[in-house]
């Protein structure tokens, strides 16, 4: 366990080379998952990141301190941290005081795989270019109506081009790294490549956390993952899900993989019951 006052040990937890890289990771995470997060979770993540600049990505904050900074209750902060942990964007590290006893937790911000960062710079550049070619009407040369039609038609065609970000992609657009069995199981309920990909990303986060040795694509393991999805759908139909479906699904997958971990390591099972 980490010692709360040991700077050398804490320095080893640094998760980003610089603050810009950390901000980019957080921006991509929020762009991808903001719709599924509670406002308090977003607020807590932003607050933790502001105090994670000395050792980049590592925040030394007590729950009570986060509660004061966000003007939230301690319980609200704890729920928000748990949600952020379930997405893998924050990892909680326990510490120990030098004289013994548990210290406060340390929060390490992580990069979440599969997040998409909007290309804001490129979009701004294109708008700036459009403005730079505007000419006051008094300075525009007079042209015939035929010429005007010829000049305006291309711009109209450009404006009619489809913005890919606004297109709803069905399950056939799901990336090939998502097992087809998982796509087939989820598609009847979510005919969206974006949603299916996000659900599979939650599976990968739970799998990485479980540290089981079997590949997640192995038939028996994947069967349990699909069963976790079916159980989550049943819970949703029965109105048993209080927060987000993705969060509930993650917890069910996590529980299924924990069973696999116990099968691989009986000692793990024994320690878990202590």
SSE arrangement:
Layout: E1 2-3, H1 7-11, H2 19-33, H3 39-50, E2 58-59, H4 63-70, H5 74-87, E3 90-93, E4 95-96, E5 106-109, H6 120-132, H7 145-159, H8 180-186, H9 193-210, H10 219-237, H11 245-264, H12 266-272
Parallel strand pairs: 1-4
Antiparallel strand pairs: 2-5, 3-5
Question: How would you describe the overall organization of this protein?
Answer:
This protein has 274 residues and is mostly helical. The protein folds into two domains: 2-109, Winged helix-like DNA-binding domain superfamily/Winged helix DNA-binding domain (Arc Repressor Mutant, subunit A); 171-272. It contains twelve helices and five strands. It has helices at residues 7-11, 19-33, 39-50, 63-70, 74-87, 120-132, 145-159, 180-186, 193-210, 219-237, 245-264, 266-272; strands at residues 2-3, 58-59, 90-93, 95-96, 106-109. The strands form two sheets. A three-stranded antiparallel sheet has the order 2-5-3. Helix 2 (19-33) runs antiparallel to helix 3, helix 8 packs parallel to helix 10 (219-237) and helix 10 packs antiparallel against helix 11 (245-264). The longest helix is centred in the C-terminal third of the chain and has 20 residues, at 245-264.
Order of helices and strands: EHHHEHHEEEHHHHHHH
Shape: globular
Distance, first to last CA:
18 Å
Question: Structural class of the secondary elements?
Answer: mainly alpha
Would you state the CATH class of the largest domain?
Mainly Alpha
Number of helices: 12
Q: Which percent band covers the strand fraction? A: 5-15%
The strands making up the biggest β-sheet line up spatially as 2-5-3
> What kind of sheet is the major sheet?
3 strands, antiparallel
Mean pLDDT: 79
The total tally of domains equals 2
Total number of beta strands: 5
CATH architecture call of the largest domain: Orthogonal Bundle
Please name the fourth-level CATH homologous superfamily of the largest domain. Answer: Winged helix-like DNA-binding domain superfamily/Winged helix DNA-binding domain
Q: Cα-atom Rg, whole angstroms? A: 24 Å
- Low-confidence parts: 120-158
| Helix content, binned percent | 55-70%
